[in-house]
Amino acid sequence: MDFIRYAEASAALLNADLSEVDGLVAYLHDRSWLVDQASDRDCMLLRKFQRELRPVFEAGEADDTTDVVGRLNELMVRHPITPRISGHDEHDLHLHVATENASVADLLIGESLLGLATLVCDLGPDRLGVCSASPCTQVFVDTSPNRSRRYCSERCSSRANVAAFRARQKAVASA
Q1: Could you give the angle at the alpha carbon of 55 between the alpha carbons of 81 and 42, nearest 5°?
Q2: In contact, 94 and 29? CB cutoff 8 Å
Q3: How many domains in the chain?
Q4: pTM of the model
Q5: Containing domain of residue 133, as a range?
Q6: What number is the average pLDDT over the span 99-114?
Q7: Which terminus, N or C, of the chain has the lesser number of Cβ atoms within 10 Å?
Q8: Other beta carbons within 10 Å of 77
Q9: pLDDT per residue over 3-34, tens digit each?
Q10: What's the burial of 9, exposed, middle or buried (CB within 10 Å: 0-12/13-18/19+)?
Q11: CA distance 65 to 141
């Protein structure tokens, strides 16, 4: 298991529009084997999970370790994870969330929680953030070496920097 990839996928899941199955299919674009299984029920369960997961990222943004850990532990109790060692060859052993009889929602929730729990333990809860660009509310996982990420995307970063530049220019012009 590449825990950073799973943690980043959990941020993408939280940011995804899951109001219809088409949104879930779009989220699953790189996992075509799951697309045929995606259902309205998965969307409903994942929307509920989005509401439960958002406070974890908000607590990470606030650098509230106790809240991040407490909320993740609570979610792992509500959504038990069954990791399994998988190896496509004997030199590539890694963890996967067990998928036997699991729905698409169960699989995605399990991967999200396992990835986030591992990330928080290995890199710290302050790696979870909420975009600083107004009015964006997207979340992200900060994998920068110096923990300096503030925006969910280059687009939001550019937009915020341009707005700040224009505000400074306007202030100089009116002074």
Answers
A1: 50
A2: no
A3: 1
A4: 0.87
A5: 3-174
A6: 90
A7: C
A8: 8
A9: 888 999 999 999 999 999 999 999 999 998 89
A10: buried
A11: 15
Write the CA distances from 52 to 92, 109, 153, integer angstroms. Answer: 33, 11, 23
Cβ pair 1, 95 in contact under 8 A: yes
Token digits for 57? Answer: 């990222």
pLDDT tens, residue by residue, 39-74:
999 999 999 999 999 999 999 999 999 999 999 999
- The token duo for 139 is 């979340």
Paired tokens of 132: 């600083």
Beta strands (DSSP E) in the chain are 83-87, 93-97, 128-130, 139-141
DSSP state of 125: G
CATH number at residue 38: 1.10.3300.10
Q: Which of 165, 169, 131, 117 is nearest to 7 (CA)?
A: 117
Give the Cα separation of 120 and 43 in Å (integer): 26
Beta-strand pair 128-130/83-87? unpaired
Are the beta carbons of 104 and 98 closer than 8 angstroms?
A: no
Task: Specify the DSSP class assigned to residue 91.
Answer: T
Q: Determine how β-strand 128-130 pairs with β-strand 93-97.
A: unpaired
Length of the chain: 175
User: Is 100 within 8 Å of 110 (Cβ atoms)?
Assistant: no
